[in-house]
C-alpha cells in the first residue's frame, strides 16, 4: 500500500487538527479514492457524497481506531462502506468522462461485488493481497481468486477476446506478474509458457488488462473542484454544529482513561511516592551500570538563563537509550525536568538512532524524596530516547524547553493548572557505546479468560526487561484491548511491571491475526535467571452484547430499561439539532460493564444522515469492595483492583444534512467494556 505517513504519526496529526487533517489526508489520495468510487457510482455528485460520508464517518470513529490496524486500511473500509450504502439505490450510468474511462468503469460494474472490490483495491489503492483480505474480511486465497476472475471478466468486457490457456497454470498468473514467485516455480512456469502458444496468448492479454488497471488511477481525471466542494460541505456542517452547541468535552471513560489522568497528575506534580518505585532507585540503577562497565560518568554541563543541566551518564541498548541527568535552577527554588516530546531534539537522530521502532518509553517524574534530594532547586531524573542503530558514536542533543514540576500540588493547583516551562538553549555531544542484550524465545501459548495469548520472547537489556506477547481477537465476541502484568518472579528476585512502559504495539509483528505488544519490567540483566514466572494482573475487554432501546420523547420521564442486569434511566429526551438524551447508570461493585459502547455508525444513523457523540459524562472510581475513591486523590496505586464506572451521560444527535431538528427514535448499544482482574501465572524457561 502506498502511504506517505505511518499510522501513529498520522493519527496524532489528525487529532491535533481534527477534520482539517482528515480532509487533507483524502486530498493527498484523491486519485486512488476517486477511481475506487467510480466502480460504485458514475455521477459526480454521488462520488462527492461518498467522500463526504467517509470523512464524517472517519472523524466520528477516530476514538475507536486502534494501533494494531493500518490507518489506510481502516479508512478504505469506511470509504467502501459508504460507497456500498450509496450505490444500493443508484443505477450505474455512464458519466461525461472520457470514453476510455466510461468503458472501463462500466466493465467494472459487470463484476460481482467481491471481484470488483478486490481488483480495485489491488490496482487502484495498491493494497497487498493480505491488506485486501483484512479490508474485505476474506482469506488471501479468496482475494486472489476474486482478482483473477475479475481480470478475466474485464478482459472480455473490454474486447480483448476470450482466452483459456492451461487451467493448471492459472494460479501462477498473479504471482508471476507481481514478481512474487519462488525461483523454481518461476523457471518451470516460464518453460511452460515458452512452449505453449495458448498460454502465451492468455497471459499476454491478461497482462494487458493488469497494466491498464495499474495506470487507471492516474489516467482518470478527477473533476475540478470535487474535493473543494466536499471540503466546503464538511466545513458548513461543522459551522452549523458549532452554532447550535456549546463546546463539548471529550472524556475517555475507561480504566485506560483513569490511567491517563493519573499520568497527568504525576507528570506535573511529581507525586505518587510508590507509583514510581521502579524509577526512584535511580542511583542504584546507575551504580549497577557503572560497576559492570556498561557506562561511564560524563558530567557534561550547559547553562542557559540561570538553569544548568548536567548529563551524568548514558546507557544504550537494543531497547532504549537512557540518559541520566541533573537540572539546577541557580536563581530560584524551581525544579525542572526534561520531556522527550517537548523541547528535546536529537540533531543526528537519523544517523545514530533506530527510526523503525514504533514505541518510545515514557519517562515519568522521579520522586526526589526517594532520591534523598532535599534541594528545592535541583531535580535528578532520566529521559528515555530511541535505541541507537550503531555500535558507538555521539548523540547530538539540543534542549530548548524544560517543564517545571509543581512541588506542592495541593497549594499550587496540581495538574489542573497550566504547565510552566523554562526556555533556553542547552546543547550536548553525548558519547555512547551500545550494550548487548539477551533475547530469549518463549513461544508459549496460554488461555486467558477463553482468549488465546502467546508469550513470544523476553528481551533482557541493561536498562529494562521487555516481554513481547500476542493475542488473537478476530471473529470473537469478546476481545482483549489491554493486558497488564503484575511482575516477573525469579528464584530470588521479583521485578515489578512498569505502568508507563506497557501495551506498546509492535506493528511489524502482526501475523495471521495475532497482534503483538510489549510490556516492560525492571531489569534482570545482572541476575541471569534460568526461568521466570510471569504474573498477569488484569485484562481490559470489549464484549459484543447488542441491545436496541426505543426512544419516545412523548412519554413521561424518567424511563428505565435494563442492560446486563443493571438499570439505566432515561432522564430526559430533548428534540433539537443537536437532540439530547440524558442517561443515568446505576452503579455497584458487581456491575458487569464499566462503559457502554454505542453504535456511532449504525445503519440507522447512516440512513438518516445523523451523527452522534457523547458529552458531559461523569463516573466513579471504585475498588473491589465497592468503596468510591476520588480520582485526583494521589492514591491510585494504593487502590485494590480499581475500576472506573460511567454513571451519567449526555448523548447528542446531529442532523448532518440540514438544519431541521432531530427526534431520537432509538439508541443502539453494540456492547460494553470492562476490566477483569486475573491471577494467572506462567513459568517459562530461558534458553
Automatic annotation (TrEMBL):
It comes from the Bacteria. InterPro entries: DUF4179 (IPR025436), RNA_pol_sigma-70_dom (IPR014284), RNA_pol_sigma70_r4 (IPR007630), RNA_pol_sigma_r2 (IPR013325), RNA_pol_sigma_r3/r4-like (IPR013324), WH-like_DNA-bd_sf (IPR036388). CDD domains: Sigma70_r4 (cd06171). Residues 107-156 form the RNA polymerase sigma-70 region domain. Residues 244-329 form the DUF4179 domain. One of its GO terms (molecular function) is DNA-binding transcription factor activity. The keyword Transmembrane applies. Keywords: Membrane, Transmembrane, Transmembrane helix. GO terms for biological process: DNA-templated transcription initiation. The chain crosses the membrane at residues 251-279. NCBIfam families: sigma70-ECF. This is RNA polymerase sigma factor (Sigma-70 family). It comes from Rossellomorea aquimaris. The lineage of its organism: Bacteria, Bacillati, Bacillota, Bacilli, Bacillales.
Amino acid at each position: 500500500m502506498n502511504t506517505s505517513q505511518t499510522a501513529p504519526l498520522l493519527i496524532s496529526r489528525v487529532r491535533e487538527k481534527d477534520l482539517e487533517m482528515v480532509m487533507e489526508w483524502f486530498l493527498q489520495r484523491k486519485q486512488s479514492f476517486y477511481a475506487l468510487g467510480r466502480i460504485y457510482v458514475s455521477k459526480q455528485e454521488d462520488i462527492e457524497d461518498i467522500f463526504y460520508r467517509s470523512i464524517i464517518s472517519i472523524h466520528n470513529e477516530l476514538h475507536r481506531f486502534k494501533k494494531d490496524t493500518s490507518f489506510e486500511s481502516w479508512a478504505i473500509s469506511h470509504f467502501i462502506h459508504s460507497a456500498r450504502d450509496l450505490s444500493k439505490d443508484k443505477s450505474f450510468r455512464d458519466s461525461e468522462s472520457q470514453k476510455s474511462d466510461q468503458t472501463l468503469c462500466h466493465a467494472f460494474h459487470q463484476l460481482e461485488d467481491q471481484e470488483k472490490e478486490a481488483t480495485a483495491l489491488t490496482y487502484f489503492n495498491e493494497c497487498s493481497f493480505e491488506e485486501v483480505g483484512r479490508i474485505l474480511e476474506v482469506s488471501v486465497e479468496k482475494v486472489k481468486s476474486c482478482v483473477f476472475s475479475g481480470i478475466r471478466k474485464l478482459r472480455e468486457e473490454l474486447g480483448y477476446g476470450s482466452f483459456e490457456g492451461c487451467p493448471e497454470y492459472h494460479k501462477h498468473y498473479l504471482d508471476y506478474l507481481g514478481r512474487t514467485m519462488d525461483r523454481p516455480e518461476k523457471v518451470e512456469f516460464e518453460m511452460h509458457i515458452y512452449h505453449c502458444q495458448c498460454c502465451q496468448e492468455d497471459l499476454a492479454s491478461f497482462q494487458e488488462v493488469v497494466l491498464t488497471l495499474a495506470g487507471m488511477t492516474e489516467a482518470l481525471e478527477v473533476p475540478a473542484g470535487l474535493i473543494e466542494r466536499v471540503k466546503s460541505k464538511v466545513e458548513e456542517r461543522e459551522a452549523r454544529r458549532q452554532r447550535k452547541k456549546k463546546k463539548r468535552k471529550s472524556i475517555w471513560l475507561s480504566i485506560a482513561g483513569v490511567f491517563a489522568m493519573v499520568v497527568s497528575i504525576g507528570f506535573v506534580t511529581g507525586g505518587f511516592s510508590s507509583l514510581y518505585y521502579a524509577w526512584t532507585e535511580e542511583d542504584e540503577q546507575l551504580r549497577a551500570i557503572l560497576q559492570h562497565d556498561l557506562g561511564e560518568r560524563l558530567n557534561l554541563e550547559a547553562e542557559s538563563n540561570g538553569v544548568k543541566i548536567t548529563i551524568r551518564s548514558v546507557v544504550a541498548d537494543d531497547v532504549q537509550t537512557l540518559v541520566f541527568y541533573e537540572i539546577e535552577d541557580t536563581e530560584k527554588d524551581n525544579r525542572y525536568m526534561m520531556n522527550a516530546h517537548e523541547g528535546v531534539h536529537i540533531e543526528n537522530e537519523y544517523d545514530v538512532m533506530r527510526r523503525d521502532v514504533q514505541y518510545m518509553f515514557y519517562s515519568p517524574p522521579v520522586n526526589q524524596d526517594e532520591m534523598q534530594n532535599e534541594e528545592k532547586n535541583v531535580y535528578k531524573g532520566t529521559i528515555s530516547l530511541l535505541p541507537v542503530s550503531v555500535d558507538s558514536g555521539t548523540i547530538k542533543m539540543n534542549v530548548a524547553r524544560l517543564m517545571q514540576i509543581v512541588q506542592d500540588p495541593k497549594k499550587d493547583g496540581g495538574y489542573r493548572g497550566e504547565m510552566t516551562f523554562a526556555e533556553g538553549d542547552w546543547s550536548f555531544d553525548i558519547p555512547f557505546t551500545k550494550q548487548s542484550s539477551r533475547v530469549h524465545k518463549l513461544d508459549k501459548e496460554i488461555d486467558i479468560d477463553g482468549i488465546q495469548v502467546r508469550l513470544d520472547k523476553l528481551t533482557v537489556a541493561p536498562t529494562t526487561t521487555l516481554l513481547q506477547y500476542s493475542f488473537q481477537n478476530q471473529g470473537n465476541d469478546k476481545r482483549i484491548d489491554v493486558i497488564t502484568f503484575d511482575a516477573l518472579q525469579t528464584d530470588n528476585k521479583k521485578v515489578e511491571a512498569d505502568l508507563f512502559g506497557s501495551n506498546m504495539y509492535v506493528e511489524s509483528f502482526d501475523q495471521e491475526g495475532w497482534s503483538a505488544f510489549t510490556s516492560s519490567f525492571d531489569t534482570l540483566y545482572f541476575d541471569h535467571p534460568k526461568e521466570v514466572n510471569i504474573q498477569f494482573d488484569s485484562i481490559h475487554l470489549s464484549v459484543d452484547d447488542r441491545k436496541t432501546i426505543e426512544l419516545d420523547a412523548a412519554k413521561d420521564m424518567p424511563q428505565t430499561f435494563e442492560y446486563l442486569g443493571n438499570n439505566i434511566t432515561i432522564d430526559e429526551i430533548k428534540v433539537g439539532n443537536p437532540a439530547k438524551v440524558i442517561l443515568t447508570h446505576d452503579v455497584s461493585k458487581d456491575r458487569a460493564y464499566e462503559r457502554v459502547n454505542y453504535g456511532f455508525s449504525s445503519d440507522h444513523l447512516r440512513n438518516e444522515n445523523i451523527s452522534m457523540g457523547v458529552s458531559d459524562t461523569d463516573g466513579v472510581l471504585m475498588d473491589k469492595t465497592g468503596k468510591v475513591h476520588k480520582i485526583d486523590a494521589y492514591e491510585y496505586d494504593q487502590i485494590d483492583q480499581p475500576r472506573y464506572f460511567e454513571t451519567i451521560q449526555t448523548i447528542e444527535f446531529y442532523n448532518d444534512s440540514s438544519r431541521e431538528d432531530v427526534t431520537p427514535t432509538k439508541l443502539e448499544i453494540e456492547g460494553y467494556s470492562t476490566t477483569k482482574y486475573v491471577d494467572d501465572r506462567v513459568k517459562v524457561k530461558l534458553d
